[in-house]
Amino acid sequence: MAGRQRWMTVVCVVGVGMLTTAGCDGTAEPAAAPTSAATRSVTPPVPRDLFSPRPEVVRTPQEACGGTPFRAGAVRAYTPDGPRYDGPGPHPVKLLRMESDLLGMGPELPYQWTGPRPAQLVVCEYEDETFDSRQVGTCEYLGGTVLGATARVQSARFVYRVFEARTGTLVRQFTLRGNTTPEETCPETTYAKTALYDQQVESKDLVAKIRPLVERDR
Questions:
Q1: Confidence band (pLDDT; 50, 70, 90) for 55?
Q2: Cα–Cα distance between 184 and 186 in angstroms, integer?
């Protein structure tokens, strides 16, 4: 193998059926007994992909969740080479938030569900554009009339679609209303004089909704 130093021990034969390393200083030794093809040691070939395995295919959130806006025919398997949604629970799951991930907002799932094992399920979160939003509060940022800012918080509803990661098959679909308070909804800092933030779904509510899918045996 290239790049590796080969080491070889010289073995001298002094009698039929007995091996020794004595007499390897240049002195004459009896000729080695011929080795039959049946007893000859043959090194098996090294698989070509042993040190360069095929890379795992992982789709982007847009591909795995059907794009924006959602199109059922555009959904592609998140990990087509990954494990099936099968066996004992909990089944590893990946949460893909199509909008709120840009702001680092939104619900979180328990670590014992999310990894590091390859996902069997993918949960796609979409903001429900058909929902009639209204203002539910504000967030005031310090800084006076020059540097200060006011952010508006509005109600929101989210659509969740759960897919099998290996096949892209829809397992379940449901909606949840955002229910975080203005203080929980707004980020700690903002760079805009005026901003608009959507209420988010509490983590415990999303966990409760998908728990049967994640923890049940298949």
A1: low
A2: 6
